[in-house]
Amino acid sequence: MAGKVLNYYAGGNTARGFYSLYESNIEGLDRIFILKGGPGTGKSSLIKKIGKAWNEKGYDIELLHCSSDTNSVDGLIIRELGVGIVDGTAPHVIEPKAPGAIEEYVNLGEAWNSSFLKEYKAEIVELAQKKKQAYQAAYQTFARALKVHDDWERYYIHNMNFEAANELTLSLVDSLFEGKSLDKKADVRHRFLGAATPVGARDCVPNLTEGLTNRYFIKGRPGSGKSTMLKKLAKAAEDKGFDVEVYHCGFDPYSLDMIICRELGFAIFDSTAPHEYFPEREGDSIIDMYETTIRNGTDERYEKEIQAVKDRYSESMQKAIGKLAEAKTWHEKLEAIYVKAMDYSVVDEWTKKIQAEIEEIAESK
Q1: Residue 234: enclosing H or E segment and its boundaries?
Q2: pLDDT digits (tens, 9 = 90+) for 133-175
Q3: Are 34 and 47 in contact (CB under 8 A)?
Q4: Per-residue pLDDT tens for 229-268?
Q5: Which residues contact 142 (CB under 8 A, 6 or more apart)?
Q6: Distance CA 236, CA 241 (A)
Q7: If you write DSSP's letter for every residue of 333-355 in order, what string do you get?
Q8: N or C, fewer C-beta in 10 Å, the chain?
């Protein structure tokens, strides 16, 4: 029987630029293969192929999705074997801690025809520059959108009952943990539940929360205390020795969108746009932050002002997504050149080598 597949993002296109959480997820692995090579060199295909093989053998795997291409993955982790394979090309550069002993570089550039690529040197340089400029424009636009979002939040922060928010958080700590604790150091992993991609916002919430006994859907407005509450709950889980998955906001990584504590079978997450979900099964419930923490009538009192700032925010986000789409266009043109220069039989040989080493690791376990 096939193992489980956990899908998430370890890097994202955010208002703080490209933001990486790769280190948190590969920490503790005994063997990490870092793939190097340009666009179109087969990194994602290699990762998917090996992931599928081990998943079909019954191993649980983690797939680290690519925020710049919804059809690609940037990493694979087989945690039971202590093995990871990650795309180590910019912008997700992985710093090795023990090169050769833990991390192994896999140079897929061995498979390309350099003479062929030299003929396209000027075009490659130009496309790479255009791609870089599009990403920079996207990040700058996301940053402007964040400032607009801050303006949006102020209407609610100025009308917030902080005492009620604190009481709600303490109440949740009591009900979620029931006074339990474990005598061990918590394993804390930082991730993204979704990302801003060239085709808009995407998330993995259904997959990540599958099989959990309880799911808590936090509803509310910007600035109603959702992220602050999640940070306090994550800290409580860690202090009590429970392993916790901390999911950061794909727009502003300084904020949180979800925490999962699998040892206690629960997830609690910001269930507002762009990752809006509603209860659909037993064990699902809503936590309404607006009703609990915000002064009655705030939406109505500032209706016109809030709508205006909301429209500004949406406009900025759409422009930023448009720039990500433009960057992907330049990337695809680069890929087309590299694909023509590749000898994929070399990539197949690397795939076999990595697969053979993982098999040795599995046999020694």
Answers
A1: helix 226-239
A2: 999 999 999 999 999 999 999 999 999 999 999 999 999 999 9
A3: no
A4: 999 999 999 999 999 999 999 999 999 999 999 999 999 9
A5: 13, 14, 15, 196, 251, 316, 317, 320
A6: 9
A7: HHHHHHHHHB-HHHHHHHHHHHH
A8: N
- Per the listing, tokens 């193992």 go with 3
Backbone angles phi, psi at 40, to 5 degrees: 80, 15
Helix, strand or coil, per DSSP, at residue 26: helix
Q: Which of 177, 116, 155 is nearest to 338 (CA)?
A: 116
Is 192:246 a contact under the CB 8 Å cutoff? no
3-state secondary structure 295-332: CCCHHHHCHHHHHHHHHHHHHHHHHHHHHHHHHHHHHH
Angle at 255 between CA 11 and CA 324, to 5 degrees: 40
The CB density around residue 228, as the number of other CB atoms within 10 Å, is 16
Selection from 218, 229, 223 nearest residue 153 by Cα = 223
How would you class 125 by CB atoms within 10 Å of its CB: exposed for 0-12, middle for 13-18, buried for 19 or more?
exposed
Q: Which two tokens stand for residue 233?
A: 């709950």
Answer yes or no: are the C-beta atoms of 161 and 216 closer than 8 Å: no
3-state secondary structure of 248: strand
Q: Say if CB 233 and CB 172 are below 8 A apart.
A: yes
Q: Fill in the amino acid letter for 166.
A: N
Output the six-digit token pair for 320.
């930023």
